Amino acid sequence: MSSLWTLPDDLVVPDLREDHPGPGAPIPQHWSKCLGCGDDQPTGLAMECTVGEGLSVRGRFEVATRFQGGPGFIHGGILMTAFDEIQGFACNAVFRKPVVTGHMGTDFKRPIPLGAVLEFTARVDGTVRRKVYTSADVRIVDGPFADPDVIVGSSHGLFVLVGHEHFEKGKDFADGLPGSEDISSI
Ligand SMILES: CCCCCCCC/C=C\CCCCCCCC(=O)SCCNC(=O)CCNC(=O)[C@H](O)C(C)(C)COP(=O)(O)OP(=O)(O)OC[C@H]1O[C@@H](n2cnc3c(N)ncnc32)[C@H](O)[C@@H]1OP(=O)(O)O
């Protein structure tokens, strides 16, 4: 099904910034209340992210019982949430600017059991104007069904670079406000 996603002919592959950190460098949460990465979000994924090779990042989280869909397996929307987060982080690591998700498509290739530790790799494939094309895959690296050679899901996503003013509209509804987690500090 991934073949439904085609990259545009005028795609531009960005260069890494000179101050881009090396592979393995931790990437802090972008907002403590974020469902994907926040450490002040008890129902969230608390995904831990690091810089990967080239234009990629990595993320990891364990599938808790609360993420259940069908008996014993992850809910598909949770997997999409994780892809959304890690692909957004890939954009942010490369551009150090805020992005929002415009469009995503996810392939669910294998059932993922509760207790599995998932490792995601997401990358920036290129840009066209403000559009950032990304892709990602996920493997089970620990716990039940662990096999780091098997891709159990994959995703493509189009993100759009936005200014900080995009988030001004949400401030009245926010459960707190970002402080030291300013995304420019990544
Ligand atoms: C002060 C606090 C700061 C905090 C900062 C935190 C930032 C953290 C940053 C990084 C961390 C990463 C971790 C986060 C991960 C999770 C991210 C999410 O889940 S975000 C929530 C879900 N997404 C939305 O809510 C978007 C809702 N949509 C919109 O707001 C607009 O539609 C928006 C911004 C996407 C585009 O609107 P326009 O008016 O700015 O621009 P137009 O001209 O419409 O689009 C620009 C280009 O994008 C294409 N485009 C837009 N939407 C598209 C779509 N759905 N499919 C295909 N193309 C699309 C358009 O065709 C256009 O392309 P052409 O340059 O003309 O070729």
Automatic annotation (TrEMBL):
Its EC number is 3.1.2.2. GO terms for molecular function: hydrolase activity. The keyword Cell membrane applies. It comes from the Bacteria. PANTHER family: ACYL-COENZYME A THIOESTERASE THEM4. It is found in: Cell projection, Ruffle membrane; Cytoplasm; Membrane. The keyword ATP-binding does not apply. It comes from Rhodococcus artemisiae. InterPro entries: HotDog_dom_sf (IPR029069), THEM4/THEM5_acyl-CoA_thioest (IPR052365), Thioestr_dom (IPR006683). It is a peripheral membrane protein. Belongs to the THEM4/THEM5 thioesterase family. Keywords: Apoptosis, Cell membrane, Cell projection, Cytoplasm, Fatty acid metabolism, Hydrolase, Lipid metabolism, Membrane, Transit peptide. This is Acyl-coenzyme A thioesterase THEM4. SUPFAM superfamilies: Thioesterase/thiol ester dehydrase-isomerase. Pfam families: 4HBT. CDD domains: PaaI_thioesterase. Its main location: membrane. Residues 72-143 form the Thioesterase domain. It catalyses: tetradecanoyl-CoA + H2O = tetradecanoate + CoA + H(+); dodecanoyl-CoA + H2O = dodecanoate + CoA + H(+); decanoyl-CoA + H2O = decanoate + CoA + H(+); octanoyl-CoA + H2O = octanoate + CoA + H(+).
